[in-house]
Structures are given as C-alpha cells and as structure tokens.
Structure to design on (777 residues):
C-alpha cells in the first residue's frame, strides 16, 4: 500500500452501493464486536474463574447470604457497621450522593451520621474516621478503614458479651493490606468480618 | 504516591511496545502479522464487499466513515427502544424512551458514553452487548483509522516537487484502517484485559440477578438482588477504547465493576494505554521520532501538572465535614479500597483522555479537583481520546507553528509545506467551535428557568451544567452526576454537542491533511522554523494552556474557583 501515490483508481461505485457497503459493514462488525467478542470472553472467563463470574456470592448454612463485593446495611450494635449509603445498599439502585462540598444538604446529612455514631459509640465527633461520615461512590462499598473498625470494637464486644481482645484480634486478622505494599488502601470487609463474628458467637451459643 | 508513579511507569512501559506493534500494523510493508490476521480480515472484507487496497480521497474516506456510523447508530437506536421483547433480557428491562435512546445512541456512536440512564437497571444484556459494546469497539477503531490517515497523509516524509489537487490525494482506505484496528488491536487487547478483570471478580455470566438474604435482618432491607451479567468484556473495552460507559450507573466505583486494587490498577492503566501507544506509533509510522518525543513530553507535562493539583486537592478534607469527623482526605463519593489518591489519579486520566469512566463521584470532588477535571476536558489533547486526542494535539501543534513563525518573522510552514489561509481556517473551525458551543449551551441552560435541573445550589450548580456540556463536546462522558439529565432538553442539546464534538474534529483535520499533502515541499533551510526542539515544545505547551485559559477562565472563575474561595472562608 503506497499511500504517497495519488488516487489512481477512481471508484465507480454508485451512492447506493456505498450505503449497501455501510449496511453490510455495520452488521458484520456489530456481530463480531457485540456478539462473538463477548460470547467468547464469557465462555473462557467463566470456565477459568467460576466463583468470581457470578458475583462472588457467599453461602452460609445452605443460604445465599450476600456477595463479598456488595456491602450490606448493619444496625444491630453487635455487628460492625459500614459506611453511609445513599442507595440504602440496594445494588440495583447503586449511587453516590453527588453532593458538592459547598452543598448545605451534605453538612446536614453528615451531622446526623456523626452525632448518631458519636452517641452509639461514646466517642467525640472529631475522633470518627471520615469514611464513617462520608457516603461511598457506589452506595455498596463493602469496606471500611481499619480505624473505622477499631473504633467500633468496644461497642461490638459489649453487645456480644465477649472479651475486647477477642474481637480486636478478629479485626486485626481481617485487615487487608495494600497489594505489594503499594496498590490500594488498608481495609476491612464488613460483611466478612461480621460473618466471622457470628462464627465466634455460634461456638459459644451467643447471638448478637 | 508510589501507586501513582507505578501506574504512570507501567502505562508507559506497556504503551511503548504496543505503539511499535501499531506502527507495524499500519506499515506499508507486509509483516508476519498478515499471516495471522489476514484470513480473518479477508472474510470481513468479503462480507462487507469492499476492496481494502483501493485508495480513497479524504472525502471518500470521510463519507465511508460517516455512513458506517449512521447505519450502526440507527440499528442501535432500534435495539434500545425495542429491547423489552428482544432476547437476552433476564431481568425484564423495558424499552427506552425515544429521547433517551437518541441521546444514548449519539453518546456511544461518538465514543463519548455519556449516560443519562443506569445500565444495571435500564439495559438488557442484548442491548448492552450488541448495541453498546459493539460501538465501544468500533468507535475507537475509527479514531485510530482517522489518525493513521492524517499521519500518513500529512506527516510522513516524502518529496513532492509539484502540487496535487487535494481531491486527488489518497489518504488510505477506510475499511482497511478500521478493520485492522478492530481485529489486530482492540479485540485482542480487550480480551486479555477482560480475563484479568474476570479473575479479580468482575461478573462474567449470562445468568440473571441473584437474590440474597442480608445478614442483619433488622435494617429494613429484606433482600438484595445482585445484578450481574457479561460485565467483564464490557468493562475491558470501555476502559481501553476511551469509552467510559459502564455496566453499573456509578461506573467503576461499584465493586462489581472494579472489585480490588489490582483491578483498579489494570483499569487505570487501560484508560491511558492506547492513547499513549498512539503517540509512540506516530513516531515509528512517520519516521519522526523526535516529533513523538516532543508530543509525549508536552502531554506528560500537562498530565503531571493537572493530576498533581487534583491529587493534592482530594487529599484535603471535605469542608462539609469540619468538626463532624476526624480530619482526613475527601472521601465523599469515594471507595475505601481505592482512597483519595487513586481516585484523583483516575479522575485526571479519565478527563485527560476523554474516557469518562469514574471510580469515584466527580460531583463531590473538592472545588479545585473538579476544576482540574474541567481543564483536562477543555484541553482534550493530553493523550486524549483514542486517535482523536493526538489529532487535536496536532492541531494545537500547527497553531503553534503558525504563531511561532509569525513571532520570528518567517512564513509559516510545517515540514516544508506552507500553512496558508485555508489551513488556518480549518484549524480555527475545529478549535473555536468548542468554546462557542460549550459556553453557548451552558448560558442557555442556565438562563432559561427549568432547563438546568442542577441538584447543587450556588456556584457548584453552574459547574454542573458547564461540566455536562464540556463532557459532551469533549466526547468524555463523565458527569457531575447529581444533574437531573434525563430530560428532553438535556438529551437533545447534549446530542448536538456530542455529534459536533466528534465529527468536526475528525473531518476538518482530514481535509487539512489532504490539502497539506498536495502542496509542493519546500526544502528545509536554516531559516525554517525547527519544530522538533525543546523550545518549540514549550511554545506548544504555552499555546495549549493559553487557548484553554483564555476561552474558559471567566466561567471557571464563576464556578469552581468561586466555590473554592467561598469554602476557604
């Protein structure tokens, strides 16, 4: 293909022929890119990564209890609580607040969260880790920061009647560190932490 | 900070060999690749009924591009409106309204992916794949085709002692350029990326939503339906093709779409990978490596500057939480697994490249962070959209040649070809329609009561409207998403901005390239303006910044800057 040359062959095709080419091109490329590519990828990917492919679901006692990738709301004092969600943790209604820092509505919402948390845990508002006041982007953030878990240990241990050190040990064991020490933030998956708590409780016959 | 440097370094290290590969694909000499991909392409050419070797004038090339896009758009429009009874709809999604379907089609056929809907609830699997994913593969490939046509026509070395009329200049063959980009680049790279994402936990299935029973039954949420689907192949191509339109409404902030820091690493690199690779490709393809170094240097400087401000800004506390929580970065609208820095980096990359995917909500960024994302989109040539970003950059470069030559009193010429009135007119059309359209539409929406539908009060309300039109014209697709944008006004006015913002910056430069290529080449002398020098790189950087600032400084002052100052008190 020497593109430096000028147009040697003048196309004799009619405009109708050009539209027909466009139609055939559209159909062929849409089947290739929108049909074959995703079908092939799903076939290979689902075979290689079976558990992940259907949403990383978690089963307990034969019941689907949640997904490791979808946060859940918690209100009982014996459970660790996740972040504020404007979607009410409904994965079909995923959303962030989209409130600007200058919007008075954001401050009102934050002050409700802040005083509720402050009262329930007996800590000063300025001690609350910010991820417990700020709503997540997805509305189903499954994680909280390690600090946000640690500040809830006293409340959870008291509600469950278990030694603080036991609950603290559970939290420490479930902290996920940045990959290779670089990628991502330290974090705790709230659902998995609470499932581990329940597993403790069932050994001793205590429910939250 | 290490995460940021690692991502920049990894992206550059991957883009370099990919750029060499792209240059090999479009080189005039046959390569071993022809034996691998040739038979597949031969089948496609036969099915379409085209001769991939037939040379085309810029007009024929442009018409073939426009006609193909129009037909694909019509098919997609029908699918979106009729998806309710079409197959692969396990969650029972209904058809779209006409204006929403029109906006969605315009948005995806222009490689923008601005979404006035939420995919997990408003698109069937069939519509997601056949309408949306196919446009996400084809439109960036068309961007590559246009870029390659322009580079080979106006920037390759050749001697022409006599001039040729522009209609007789071949810019290449559209079908060959397009199909090669799809078969040899977009699909293989997307396949590998999709598998990496599936491994990290992005759903990859044709089963419908699963219902689970949450652990704490006292919260009022009796069950959760977990929306899944063939998400991985879509997320891969939306990141790689500067598309940005995700499966779920809040895009890659949703853990199902971006589950881990590793998937975030992959997706962040995928945003800039092909736009960076095309700069390397330009160097190898045209034989002008110093030009490619100049372009990459200017782009990296702009990127580092604006990304740096954004990262600093998002690590400042959100003013709304003062006294209500411990001091920390602005985490409103952000996910704990990524944190403020990785979200700001993504926000910068996605606006610099016209990708438009997000892993956190830009509407809740601190004011200066939000301002940098707007600046990125005004410039729209820091890597830029696949193909079109570099085309935009080359326009700025020609403008810098023009201004630089006049400043030192030479007649403006680039690589021996004179820049004359017609070239400057085409450059001006391509560049000036941007502020005209964005500011005009913003002013209209703000001035007429009831149109804007902004959800935040005050200065930020103006920023929301400005962001939406800027994003539409830049073919970016991200948004200050609090905006109530599924209205007839927004759907139609954005569709206009989308289409003009896509096709004028492709067709005007294509005409310009053909016109330049037809000119007699004057020999380089010591009096010619030296383009491939650091001095000229600085001049280009200055021209880009001045153009963006002069056009948009007043509205930036009224929006994010005013918001920043009001919060600082």
């Amino acid at each position: 293909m020497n593109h430096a040359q000028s147009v040697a062959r003048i196309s004799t095709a009619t405009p109708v022929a050009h539209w027909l080419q466009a139609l055939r091109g559209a159909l062929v490329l849409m089947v290739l890119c929108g049909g074959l590519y995703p079908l092939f990828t799903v076939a290979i990917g689902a075979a290689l990564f079976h558990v992940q492919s259907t949403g990383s679901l978690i089963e307990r006692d034969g019941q689907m209890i949640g997904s490791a990738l979808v946060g859940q709301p918690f209100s009982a004092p014996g459970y660790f609580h996740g972040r504020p969600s404007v979607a009410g943790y409904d994965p079909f209604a995923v959303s962030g607040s989209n409130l600007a820092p200058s919007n008075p509505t954001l401050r009102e919402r934050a002050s409700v969260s802040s005083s509720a948390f402050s009262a329930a845990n007996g800590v000063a508002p300025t001690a609350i880790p910010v991820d417990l006041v700020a709503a997540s982007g997805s509305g189903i953030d499954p994680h909280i920061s390690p600090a946000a878990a640690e500040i809830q240990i006293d409340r959870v241990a008291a509600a469950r009647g278990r030694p603080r050190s036991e609950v603290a040990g559970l939290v420490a064991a479930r902290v996920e560190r940045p990959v290779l020490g670089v990628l991502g933030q330290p974090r705790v998956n709230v659902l998995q932490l609470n499932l581990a708590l329940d597993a403790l409780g069932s050994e001793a016959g205590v429910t939250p | 900070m290490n995460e940021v440097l690692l991502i920049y370094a990894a992206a550059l290290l991957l883009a370099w060999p990919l750029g060499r590969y792209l240059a090999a694909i479009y080189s005039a000499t046959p390569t071993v690749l022809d034996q691998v991909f040739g038979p597949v392409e031969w089948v496609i050419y036969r099915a379409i009924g085209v001769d991939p070797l037939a040379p085309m004038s810029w007009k024929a090339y442009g018409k073939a591009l426009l006609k193909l896009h129009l037909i694909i758009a019509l098919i997609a429009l029908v699918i979106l409106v009729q998806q309710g009874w079409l197959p692969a709809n396990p969650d029972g999604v209904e058809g779209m309204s006409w204006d929403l379907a029109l906006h969605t089609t315009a948005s995806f056929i222009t490689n923008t992916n601005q979404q006035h809907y939420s995919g997990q609830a408003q698109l069937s699997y069939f519509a997601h794949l056949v309408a949306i994913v196919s446009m996400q593969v084809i439109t960036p490939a068309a961007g590559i085709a246009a870029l390659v046509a322009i580079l080979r026509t106006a920037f390759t070395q050749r001697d022409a002692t006599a001039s040729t009329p522009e209609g007789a200049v071949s810019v290449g063959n559209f079908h060959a350029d397009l199909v090669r980009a799809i078969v040899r680049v977009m699909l293989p790279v997307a396949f590998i990326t999709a598998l990496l994402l599936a491994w990290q936990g992005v759903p990859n299935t044709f089963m419908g939503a699963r219902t689970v029973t949450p652990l704490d039954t006292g919260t009022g949420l009796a069950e959760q339906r977990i929306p899944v689907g063939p998400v991985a192949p879509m997320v891969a191509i939306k990141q790689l093709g500067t598309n940005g339109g995700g499966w779920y409404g809040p895009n890659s902030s949703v853990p199902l779409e971006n589950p881990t820091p590793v998937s975030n690493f992959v997706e962040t690199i995928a945003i800039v990978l092909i736009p960076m690779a095309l700069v390397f490709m330009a160097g190898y393809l045209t034989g002008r490596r110093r030009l490619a170094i100049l372009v990459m240097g200017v782009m990296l400087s702009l990127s580092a500057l604006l990304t740096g401000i954004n990262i600093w800004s998002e690590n400042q506390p959100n003013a709304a939480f003062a006294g209500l929580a411990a001091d920390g970065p602005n985490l409103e609208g952000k996910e704990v697994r990524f944190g403020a820095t990785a979200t700001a980096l993504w926000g910068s990359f996605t606006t610099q490249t016209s990708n438009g995917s997000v892993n956190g909500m830009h509407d809740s960024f601190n004011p200066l962070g939000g301002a940098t994302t707007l600046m990125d989109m005004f410039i729209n040539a820091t890597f830029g959209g696949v193909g079109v970003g570099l085309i935009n950059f080359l326009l700025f470069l020609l403008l810098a040649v023009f201004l630089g030559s006049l400043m030192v009193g030479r007649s403006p010429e680039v690589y021996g070809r004179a820049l004359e009135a017609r070239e400057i007119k085409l450059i001006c059309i391509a560049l000036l329609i941007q502020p005209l359209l964005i500011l005009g539409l913003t002013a209209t929406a703000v001035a007429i009561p009831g149109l804007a539908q902004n959800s935040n009060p005050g200065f930020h309300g103006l920023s929301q409207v400005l962001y939406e039109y800027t994003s539409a014209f830049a073919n970016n697709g991200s948004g200050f998403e609090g905006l109530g944008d599924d209205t007839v006004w927004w759907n139609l006015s954005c569709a206009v901005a989308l289409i003009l913002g896509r096709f004028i910056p492709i067709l005007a430069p294509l005409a310009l390239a053909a016109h330049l290529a037809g000119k007699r080449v004057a020999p380089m002398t010591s009096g010619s303006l030296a383009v491939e020098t650091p001095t000229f790189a600085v001049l280009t950087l200055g021209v880009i910044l001045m153009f963006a600032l002069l056009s948009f400084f007043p509205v930036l002052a009224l929006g994010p800057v005013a918001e920043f100052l009001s919060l600082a008190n």
